[in-house]
Amino acid sequence: MTEVAVAEASMVVEESIERQGEFLIAVLQDIQEHYNYLPEAALQEVAARLDIPLRDVYGVATFYRSFSLAPKGEHIVTVCLGTACHVRGGARIVEALARELEIEAGETTPDLEFTLETVNCLGCCAIGPIVVVDGEYHGEMTAQGAVNLVRKIQKAERV
Amino acid sequence: MSRITIDGIEIDAPEGWTVLETARFLGLEIPTLCYVEGLSPWGGCRLCTVEIGQGERTKLVTACTYPVEEGLVVRTATKRVVEARKLILELLIAQCPTSKRLQDLAAQMGVQEVRFKPKWENCIYCGLCVRMCEEQMMAKALGFVDRGNKLRISTPFDKSSEECRRCGGCMYICPACTLRCEGAQPEEVLCGRCESSTQPTCLEVHDNYACWMGLTGDCGTCVKEGAEK
């Protein structure tokens, strides 16, 4: 990491601690929101400022699925593969999206535009299969419908 | 002081003692693996399982973490306890058949077969190295990373840690890597050779997991410089 990046991480962490107090997970969530992932420099900064061993910070950061140590895409596409969504074709949606974006589930496109994720249940099984794009829920989704959602974002970006 | 009963023996145990400490005080034998004096009790390996309670309402608990309480009735060698321990040891051996400590325990406890598919891993997640590093070596270089079936023990970012002083405490305490058993084979996971021979057969076994500062990084705890992850 460059010096500039380390200075930025330091600032992000400091601001977050001022806002959240000395709560590790809350601070990590702030960092994740700022960067879309948890950079190494930021985690080291957190460990130093909160006086928590780095190995514990790292342990927490790797324990929770909502934290990521690798950069995530700008748009996060989550497909539910819970039982109800699965029987209604959730797996087909993942396949279609994987083909469209040319990545596997859990990966990020090289241009850092999209991350494709799967989740095991979102708790709204009645409207399954569900696809969540940037926090917005789309119920009764089809493979083609999901691909269209992604294309719409790509089109909007290009304009 | 709390008056408890262990295997029919009544004893006044001081406040703060665990069932394991009390049983050892009485000279009763309870097998342990992840319990080491001088490190905090962990309750991870479950080998020190004992039965508490009376009549219909008994349950199995780990002796190393269960504090004594007034009127507690403990039994350390019932059929249920012995069978539970054997099952636990079978699972541990299936995870890491190359551990001499586990193979020795199997011989001691009379485990005759391992009914699970061996996984040939080199870690049983007993957490001894993590506690050793933190509590005795004051380094906190090692920790648990990830979770569930991806759980492993490593240094932050899988890099050589600045806190690590290469003391080797983690290797010294490890029940899986320091003493390796070469008797475990895919067709017969249990070794038992030490049991039938007066000459220990495995003391000369060395591989990258028993590195003792060859620093190959294979054991996954201290140094990973250049190792692909």
From TrEMBL, chain A:
Similarity-based family: Belongs to the complex I 24 kDa subunit family.
Keywords: 2Fe-2S, Iron, Iron-sulfur, Metal-binding
PROSITE patterns to which the protein is assigned, alphabetical: COMPLEX1_24K
Cofactor note (record): Binds 1 [2Fe-2S] cluster.
Domain of life the protein comes from: Bacteria
Binding site residues for [2Fe-2S] cluster: 80, 85, 121, 125
Required cofactor names: [2Fe-2S] cluster
GO molecular function, one term: 2 iron, 2 sulfur cluster binding
InterPro entries given in the database record: NADP_DH_HndA-like (IPR028431), NuoE-like (IPR002023), NuoE_dom (IPR042128), NuoE_N (IPR041921), Thioredoxin-like_sf (IPR036249)
Descriptive protein name: NADH dehydrogenase
From TrEMBL, chain B:
Keyword match Metal-binding: yes
Record-linked CDD domains: fer2
Occurrences of domain 4Fe-4S ferredoxin-type (ranges): 112-143, 155-184
One Pfam family in the UniProt entry: Fer2_4
BP GO terms, sorted: ATP synthesis coupled electron transport
Signal peptide (from-to): none
GO molecular function, one term: metal ion binding
Protein keywords: Iron, Iron-sulfur, Metal-binding
2Fe-2S ferredoxin-type domain: residues covered: 2-80
Source species: candidate division TA06 bacterium DG_24
Record protein name field: (2Fe-2S)-binding protein
GO cellular component: membrane
